[in-house]
Amino acid sequence: QRTAGIVSSAFNLTNCIVGGGVLALPFAYSRSGLLLGLLLTIFIAGMGVFTARLLKLSAKLVPFAVASFKDLGSYCFGVAG
After folding, report:
1. Is residue 75 within 8 Å of 66, Cβ to Cβ?
2. What is the CA radius of gyration of the chain?
3. Number of Cβ within a 10 Å radius of residue 80
4. Do the beta carbons of residue 39 and residue 26 sit within 8 Å?
């Protein structure tokens, strides 16, 4: 029985995400137009960068090593996190 390793799992996940984007972007641009589509793409990319920076900052401010998003959420928001 074969099991997936970390590298092959990460590659598979990346392939699924990129594949979905490759199929969805042309449709979104055809519906919204070139200018609005480009502006929305830039906005969404900026929000992704902003979110990644917030996660990095949150992980740095926690007084112990954070091993997962669950640990970070639990520390920041208690049981609800």
Report:
1. yes
2. 18
3. 7
4. no
The token duo for 4 is 């997936």
Residue 8 to residues 22, 51, 57: CA-CA distances in angstroms?
A: 21, 26, 29
Type of residue found at 57: L
Tens digits of residue pLDDT in 13-61: 888 888 888 888 899 899 999 999 999 999 999 999 999 999 888 888 8
Amino acid at 70: K
Which residues make Cβ contacts (< 8 Å) with residue 29, sequence separation at least 6?
37
C-alpha–C-alpha distance, residues 72 and 44, integer Å: 24
Confidence of residue 63 (pLDDT cuts 50, 70, 90): confident
